[in-house]
User: Fold this.
Amino acid sequence: MFTRIRQWLLPPDFEGEEDKTRIAALLNTILWIFILAASLYGILSPIEPEMRSRRLFIIVPFVLAMLLMKQLVNWGYVRFTGNFVVFFLWLTLTGAMLFGADYNNPAFMGYLVVVVCAGLILSPRATLAWSIFSILTNAVIIGLGQRGILPQSISVTPPLAFLAAQTMYIVTSTFLLIQTLRKIDESRAKAQQELNERRRAEADREEVIKELESKNAELERFTYTVSHDLKSPLITIGGFVGLLEEDARSGNTDKFKKDVERIREAKDKMHRLLDELLELSRIGRLMNPPSNIAFAQIVDEALALTRGRLMAGNVQVDIGKNLPAVKGDHSRLVEVVQNLIDNAAKFTGDQPTPRIQIGLFENQGEKAFFVSDNGLGIDPAFHERVFGLFDKLDPKSEGTGVGLALVKRIVETHGGRIWVESAGKGKGSTFYFTLPIVEYQSAARVPA
Assistant:
């Protein structure tokens, strides 16, 4: 219960709405000051017995109205409550003045409070409007008093002199308040800008940290994989060098030639591994200047480079129409498509009519190129693993296992992403990848 009371007494917090929260806190403070001041005035201020009922008639509705305003602030009606509080203050002060137009009535000075509250709660423009309105109210009340409609003032001060003094007070206060509010707004704007810049810097720092952690993890995997895969041909070479000595002593030339051939194969494999590792290390550091290239041209060049394998496997290739242009490194993007086509043609399995489809896929506003085949397929458990370095799902297959890792690095260097979808073994595979599109006409749909 005490927690709820405490929450009700405190200003509400509107998450994501800083200006609204600020005004609510200010309103909360102003309302409690008014409530406490009115209550203490009603209890402690001396007054003639015949005036007590009149004071009670003014103070009780005022306090109840302020409590209602507090509840409206808690409900989120901040702007409405701000306007109503300023209007209610003006109405209360004007009502008090109607009981007597004496220049010594303290309610006359209360209009300065109206102006100040309008500036703090609403806006500088509202401050100016309420200051003019308060001056006019002063003039009307003094005029009504002079005409005898309201009780006449017993003060010896001339009405015009009093009105001029009151006007000067309000105008001066309004000018100073508007200047102060403008300075406060400028300071808040500057502070908010600095806060936003700091948040952006922190976000950038977090992004850099995540990227470094990712790179470190990738480097660890890279180091382990390279050390493991490079050992294999070295062990092969070392083993067959020992056998060469035995074959030479025994004079077995046929076995000697086979051992030499095995050493040469191991040497060639290590050479390929080192070449592809060097190529992989260059991605992201030694890119050619980006240019706009028609994706259809990239596909044509990739097909020309893989024509031998496609003809040998009798693979049919279907290319989607109206492919857009992309922006990037021409030769690197050809490598991407070439590797994906070569990979699809390599794993056709026992498919009697192997087919590869290339096009553009569009789904919920995202556009991605695809290379799809009807070959062996990939088990869903290995969809991430296929992009790992030297990660060959079939150890007996040709190649070093660097191709898809190379493709992934090139795509990510261009700001895109790549993923594979396959229903499983024998269901074919589809590799999707995104690139910066600079011209878009119509998208080919992924075939059912």
User: Anything to note?
Assistant: The beta strands are 291-294, 316-319, 325-328, 355-363, 366-373, 418-421, 429-433, 437-439. DSSP finds twelve helices and eight strands in the chain. Residues 8 and 322 are 63 Å apart (CA to CA). Residues 392-400, 441-448 have pLDDT under 50 and may be disordered.
